[in-house]
Design brief:
The complex is a heterodimer. Chain A is α/β, with parallel strands linked by helices. Chain A is built from 10 helices and 12 strands. Chain A has an 8-stranded mixed sheet with strand order 6-7-8-3-9-10-12-11, sandwiched between helices. In chain A, strands 2-1-4-5 form a 4-stranded antiparallel sheet. The two termini of chain A are about 40 Å apart. In chain A, about 45% of the residues are buried. In chain B, the strands form 2 sheets. Chain B has an 8-stranded mixed sheet, sandwiched between helices. The longest helix of chain B is centred in the middle third of the chain and has 18 residues, at about 185-205. The two termini of chain B are about 35 Å apart. Classes of the chains: A alpha/beta, B alpha/beta.
């Protein structure tokens, strides 16, 4: 059994009140039926444009948001039905790293307070040992222990992200969801944090879901890749295979749009017209069809399921015209 | 003749914590129709060096302490407010990173796009027609209807298009784009970059493109200035910068990008942090983080040296063939 199993997960938000014309409440289907599996020790990259629901999916998986429907099994335990004390204990095993280390750390807590809080909360250490454990954690993420009494404002962005990572590691979790962990950082700092994450993953055997809009970063760190579009997975499979020969027209367009740091690199960009439509009122049938250059009349009627690609058995693609897409 | 010639520009900020030497001796020429990419990390002075040209530095605490920026016989750094108004928005335009904070939420889009023209004294009817055409040029469908709408009715990518329309409606000679696609998704970024390249081709506008994304630079720029700690450390054609980087900082920057590495391969790390710009730096500002640094690097004043027709480096060890 896979370490992480997500089955038909949905998260719908009620938009409060009535709209301009006095009509009833509307529903934003941020995550609308997502299923995937992830083996222990692997990294899943979750990519998509802003508003596609990738962050909501990450948060719903960890019960930071209550799912509307569906199940999430972490190491065989259904975390969607857990309540109260049981949920609290279980939270030890799954932790989150957020994008903005300026916002996710309490400005009035020192490094020691920030890192010791989860340890005390879960009664993992006696207060006499807390100092040693915090120093250990700082060492793991490459922060000098002389900084232990400092406040977040005294650190640079990269160092703050190290503190946030140490906080996530304090409870020795097995699963980490990292939501854009390097997007706020400069390239040279970004590479330090990416190296740190890959070291930690190896040393501690972590399983990770890595959410990012930066496809270059995701390609580098992830074993598996899930491409989301308007609350659904468009394509899912081993990262290398998906990057080599993307099947879904949306994946093709997304990958062709990545700027490559090589002036000789010329690729025909597949242009997508306009912006992603609103998840309040997604297009009928295949959600991508209004922007898809292969779409025909059926695409507007039939919603494609995420099926195994006959030519690449490890990959699943949600496109009913995959054969036609391949021929062109 | 160069369209813009910047010589020895230095902009300092006088703060409570001391003098921040944000830009410290920057010189370059820009030819008509050229696209110049300026890359560097946060705090390297890439934005401040361009804001200084258009008088957009808040003074105080900022002060342009030295330099000239000759544009059509006018020194932009010494221009009177009146002279600056004539240049800014009509001859030299700017696009900023965040289109939401740059558009006035209370004014209709049409009025905002027409504004630089009316400022120039163009007749209102003609201004309307030109604004309409500018919006059409940047790919906004149904521009007549769209001109009656407010910024909140536009998506992020559409707002950035409006900003570009506003910047180009006066047909400027020079467009300064400060991280214009950083807040956008890759697919929309690709649309905007293509649009800027097309418009530039059609109107022969020179572009200064500020970004931290080397991938974007590789696709759009003719020449590149690499900035570090307030100065230019390397300058060359885009091909030279990417294929034969001649400064350890440029090399390190290129080596830090994930997409140039095989899957899972360790990324190169630049150790340490950029220098504190409130302190006087002697020698090369990159020396403490440089793997090639020798004792001489900490004491020798750096200056850009020619190593090719257009290729310059501030690293004397590179220029002298030591690396």
């Amino acid at each position: 059994m896979s370490f992480l199993v997500v089955e038909n997960l949905k998260k719908h938000f009620q938009v409060k009140g009535t709209d301009l014309f006095g009509r009833d409440k509307q529903v934003v289907k941020a995550v609308d039926g997502v299923s995937f599996r992830l083996e222990r020790g692997k990294v899943l990259g979750l990519v998509g444009e802003s508003g596609c629901g990738k962050s909501t999916l990450g948060r719903t998986m960890l019960r930071l948001l209550e799912p509307t429907e569906g199940r999430v099994l972490i190491d065989g335990t259904d975390v969607t039905t857990l309540k109260g004390e049981k949920l609290r204990t279980q939270r030890r095993t799954f932790q989150m790293i957020f994008q903005d280390p300026y916002a996710s750390l309490d400005p009035r807590m020192t490094v020691f307070d920030t890192l010791a809080e989860p340890l005390f909360e879960h009664k993992l250490v006696e207060s006499s040992q807390a100092l040693n454990r915090v120093k250990e954690l700082m060492d793991v993420v490459g922060l000098a222990s002389r900084h232990i009494r400092k406040y977040p404002h005294e650190f640079s962005g990269g160092q703050r992200q190290r503190i946030a990572i140490a906080r996530a590691l304090a409870l020795e979790p097995e699963l980490i969801v990292a939501d854009e962990p390097v997007s706020a950082l400069d390239v040279s700092i970004q590479s330090q944090i990416l190296n740190l994450l890959s070291d930690l993953r190896e040393q501690l055997g972590l399983t990770m879901v890595f959410i990012s809009h930066d496809l270059g970063v995701v390609k580098h760190v992830s074993d598996d890749l899930a491409v989301m579009y308007l609350g659904k997975i468009a394509e899912y499979g081993p990262t290398q295979e998906v990057f080599q020969a993307p099947g879904h027209p949306y994946t093709q367009a997304l990958l062709s749009a990545i700027p490559v740091p090589d002036p000789d690199y010329k690729v025909e960009q597949i242009e997508l017209d306009g912006d992603p439509p609103s998840p309040i009122n997604p297009p009928s049938g295949c959600r991508f069809h209004p922007r898809c250059r292969y779409a025909n009349a059926d695409c507007a009627k039939l919603e494609p399921s995420l099926d195994i690609d006959s030519q690449r058995p490890a990959v699943r693609v949600a496109c009913s015209r995959l054969d036609a897409v391949r021929q062109k | 003749m160069a369209l813009l010639s910047v010589q020895n520009l230095a902009t300092y900020f006088y703060t409570r914590n001391g003098v921040v030497r944000a830009v410290n001796g920057v010189s370059y020429d820009l030819e008509p129709g050229e696209t110049l990419g300026i890359v560097g990390e946060s705090g390297s002075g890439k934005s401040v060096s361009c804001y200084s040209l258009l008088g957009l530095i808040p003074m105080p605490p900022g002060k342009i302490v030295s330099g000239t920026a000759m544009y059509n016989g006018l020194d932009l750094l010494k221009a009177t407010p009146k002279q600056m108004r004539d240049v800014r928005g009509s001859k030299i335009s700017m696009i900023f990173q965040d289109p939401m904070t740059c558009l006035n939420p209370y004014l209709k889009i049409g009025r905002q796009v027409m504004e630089p023209l009316i400022e120039e004294g163009v007749d209102k009817k003609i201004a309307y027609d030109r604004a309409l055409k500018a919006l059409d040029d940047v790919g906004i469908l149904d521009p007549e209807e769209r001109m009656k709408q407010y910024p909140h009715e536009f998506s992020g990518g559409m707002r950035q298009r409006v900003m570009i329309a506003m910047a180009l409606v006066t047909e400027p000679d020079l467009l300064i784009a400060d991280e214009p696609t950083t807040a956008l998704d890759v697919t929309v970024q690709a649309q905007i970059l293509k649009l800027i390249a097309e418009l530039k081709q059609r109107k022969n506008t020179a572009v200064i493109f500020i970004t931290h994304d080397l991938g974007v630079i590789a696709g759009i720029a003719d020449n590149v200035n690499v900035m570090y700690a307030g100065g230019i450390v390397e300058r060359g054609t885009t091909r030279e910068i990417f294929k034969q980087p001649a400064h350890p900082y440029t090399q390190a920057l290129l080596d830090s990008i994930p997409s140039t590495h095989a899957h899972g391969e360790r990324l190169f790390n630049i150790k340490g942090l950029p220098p504190n710009l409130t302190q006087e730096i002697t020698g090369c500002p990159f020396a403490p983080r440089c793997k090639h640094a020798v004792d001489a690097c900490y004491v020798t004043e750096t200056k850009l040296a020619n190593i090719g027709e257009q290729h310059h480096t501030a690293c004397f060890r590179f220029a002298g063939g030591e690396i």
